[in-house]
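Researcher: Next entry in the queue.
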Amino acid sequence: MKLEISCVTKILLLLSIIILAFICRDLLHLLILSLTAFSIMALLNRGMLFNCVKIVIPMLIVAFITWTLFRSYSIFYAGGGDVDWYFGSFMTVRLSAVLATSFILVSTVKPLDLIKALLFFKLPRKAVLVAGLTFRHIHTVANDYRTIKEALTSKGFELDKGSLIKRIKNYSLVIVPLLVRCIENAEKLSLALELRGIKIENYGRFSEKLSGLDILVMTICVICIVFAILYYWIGVF
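Model: Structure for this entry, 237 residues:
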């Protein structure tokens, strides 16, 4: 089953969940947000849900232990006793909502979808072009990083052994060639754009029509954010 909504609506919905996760101060509301994010993931792709759960669970366990036992050492949330089970649960559920939503964004939003969303909100075309190209080449940088690391490992370099200082020094062997590779890719991309005569002022327009469902979902997202701000920050209700 797939959600038949516009890419702009999908991005706005996911960003709304992240925004609400940081606005809400009630554990039950955060739990609803987290379940909503995982439900959307299940509707989109059950395999993606399994992969996300496998990656997120260890992080959530560490987060729960850390926020429960060491809250008094926090810079931003210091206070209370040494052990705070409610606060640990609260921060863990918030983290789960943010991680699940971010996982959906990275896994399902294509560079073209991001560009359409930015054009829809009438952002400057320079910003749209830069954001689109950056998002487009994230996987390229990841592949280059993996290739360089595998090449060093095949030559006998042990990058993940030793003390923290030694590991940092070892990874400098990866970072330097990765930066060089990124600069080379940027130069190639710049030349390709110039040769094809692509100008920023001629850079696309949003032409996709929004359906009634898209408008409904967008309206609900805006209403939820406004209501949460009024309820938690201003105290109107």
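Model: The chain has a mean pLDDT of 83.
Researcher: Noted, moving on.
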